[in-house]
Amino acid sequence: MDNKQLAVYFIAGTPNCPKSIEQTLEEAIKGGITMFQFREKGKGALVGEAKKETALRLQLICREAGIPFIVNDDIELAIEIGADGVHIGQEDKAASIVRDKIKGGIVGVSVHTMEEFEEAIKDGADYVGTGPIYATVTKSDTRPVAGTSLIRRMKERYPEFPVVGIGGITLETAGAVMEAGADGVSIITAISMADDPAEAAAYLKKEMQ
Ligand SMILES: Nc1nc(C(F)(F)F)ncc1COP(=O)(O)OP(=O)(O)O
Ligand SMILES: [Mg+2]
Questions:
Q1: What is the interface pTM, i.e. ipTM, of the complex?
Q2: Is ligand 1 within 6 A of the CB of residue 186?
Q3: Which of 82, 91, 124, 182 could form a disulfide with 165 if both were Cys (CB 3.0 to 4.6 A apart)?
Q4: What is the 3-state secondary structure (H, E, C) of 100-140?
Q5: What domains lie within the chain, and their CATH numbers?
């Protein structure tokens, strides 16, 4: 995959969006996000048919905008609707199994150490997300806050492999994550809870250029 696709990687589920998630995604796309991950988790998250129908609507919005539509964790849903890819964590199915199931799709893996990073590469991951870079309230079960040092080490070791930072990244701190060598930033709250998600996305896009 093209590393630039990770530049402004918006992640959201219905619990993260005060407005409708469709409206929030459309505004974020207007602002210039480069990739979207549907992460339907947390209090009040949709399940079953409702989750699938929302995923299909969001996928259509991404298709029309020409940006990749990624599903978090739910490999079966991703395959069922023909998503562009999946993102899995260390606690989810092994990347090697997902790689086989998702054939030509994009497989993203969360990594927190160089060992996990090297294993993800061996398993055929197309990109990795590493963090939490800063403290975050969006995800309660995170590893300790990592800062940007691991991104630097990962890029020193594998300069070409696509790496995106995640966790508590704001408009004020996105520049530091890019300066550390990341190909992009993954953002939930700074876009989904912004008064103007399009403006927040546009600011981040400029920061990442
Ligand atoms: N969802 C994510 N997306 C990324 C991405 F690289 F896309 F930015 N990196 C990391 C995560 C965290 O993934 P995971 O560890 O499975 O936890 P959760 O399923 O709660 O999100
Ligand atoms: Mg997961």
A1: 0.97
A2: yes
A3: 182
A4: HHCCCCEEEEEECCHHHHHHHHHCCCCEEEECCCCCCCCCC
A5: 3-208 (3.20.20.70)
